[in-house]
């Protein structure tokens, strides 16, 4: 199920109209918002930064980030051209720290979907992100140096189709066409670079097309 903005209900937050208290759309996991009211009430007024509009959202869906946090690392993923660029703010300048080919998500229901576009906050790191065989609960392998930015979407290294296998550095598919389930696949050394530089709740991922 998805809303009129093509945001699926799964792993999303309901956003309510300010006046009618009616849920009118879904907010993607990892979207950045500005809190507009007290944090003590059940539904908190917000204004979108990753999206347009003002709504209220149940408090349990929010992770409050201190207003002293500065987002000095931004990873820009270009799903049209299948590449990634990591930027770092130093003083008043944004510096390019890396550029690499990637493989983003493809549309192949029910198990694979496109990498969603937009602005997201880095939320979680896993040195090994284990994954199942499609449609099962059997581990098929792992992806190294995984940095999660929304729902099941990670920036990670080349998948290893063996839970006990060794890290693979490169895949010939990088920089070609979307082939992932939703994630952004990198050369494993570059995934490690992103993994080390991008701090939880203090770095951003911007996906463009």
From TrEMBL:
Protein's UniProt keywords contain Cell wall biogenesis/degradation: yes
GO annotation, biological process: cell wall organization; peptidoglycan biosynthetic process; regulation of cell shape
Pfam families: YkuD
Gene Ontology molecular function: any one: carboxypeptidase activity
PROSITE patterns per record: LD_TPASE (PS52029)
Domain (L,D-TPase catalytic): residue spans on this chain: 73-208
Parts of the chain that traverse the membrane: none
Pathway: Cell wall biogenesis; peptidoglycan biosynthesis
Active-site residue list: 156, 183
Superkingdom, taxonomy of origin: Bacteria
Family: Belongs to the YkuD family.
Name by which UniProt lists this protein: L,D-transpeptidase catalytic domain
């Amino acid at each position: 199920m998805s809303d009129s903005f093509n945001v699926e209900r799964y792993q999303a937050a309901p956003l309510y109209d300010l006046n009618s208290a009616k849920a009118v759309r879904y907010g993607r996991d990892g979207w950045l918002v500005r809190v507009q009211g007290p944090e003590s009430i059940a539904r908190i007024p917000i204004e979108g930064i990753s999206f347009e509009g003002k709504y209220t959202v149940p408090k349990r869906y929010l992770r409050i980030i201190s207003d002293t946090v500065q987002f000095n690392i931004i990873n820009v993923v270009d799903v049209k051209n299948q590449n990634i660029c990591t930027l770092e703010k130093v003083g008043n300048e944004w510096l390019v720290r890396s550029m690499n080919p990637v493989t983003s998500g493809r549309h192949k229901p029910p198990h694979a979907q496109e990498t969603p576009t937009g602005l997201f906050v880095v939320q979680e790191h896993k040195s090994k992100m284990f994954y199942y065989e499609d449609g099962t609960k059997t581990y098929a392998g792992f992806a190294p140096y995984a940095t999660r930015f929304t729902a099941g979407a990670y920036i990670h290294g080349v998948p290893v189709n063996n839970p006990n296998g060794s890290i693979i550095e490169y895949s010939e598919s990088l920089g070609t066409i979307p082939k992932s389930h939703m994630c952004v696949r990198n050369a494993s050394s570059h995934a490690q670079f992103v993994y080390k530089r991008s701090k939880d709740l203090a770095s951003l991922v911007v996906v463009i097309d």
